[in-house]
Amino acid sequence: xxxxxxQLGREEQAMIEVGHTTIKPATARLLTLLFIxxxxxxxxxxxxxxxxxxxxxxxxxxxxxxxxxxxELPSALSTFVRTDSSIVLRVIKTNRQLLRNIHSYENALEx
Length: 111
Hints:
The chain is mainly α.
């Protein structure tokens, strides 16, 4: 029985079709653009909302809230520099400091 005369199994058919997707280039570009728009729209809207909140007096800072976490990095670096231990213990202590900062940042976001 040769390949043309017998019925292919599901796995054999799948192996033949792997990597062979039929999609027009215009459709691929459109879907790519829609995906990029979808993943960037929410953060952009949030940042614009934060800036508007600052301009209307509802927020103390014009800096969007999603960047607030970066204010905590100097304290973590300070923890790393001030600790007089081996590099491993310094990293562990700094990591604990960052985890505390992350939790407080998450709580602020929830509020």
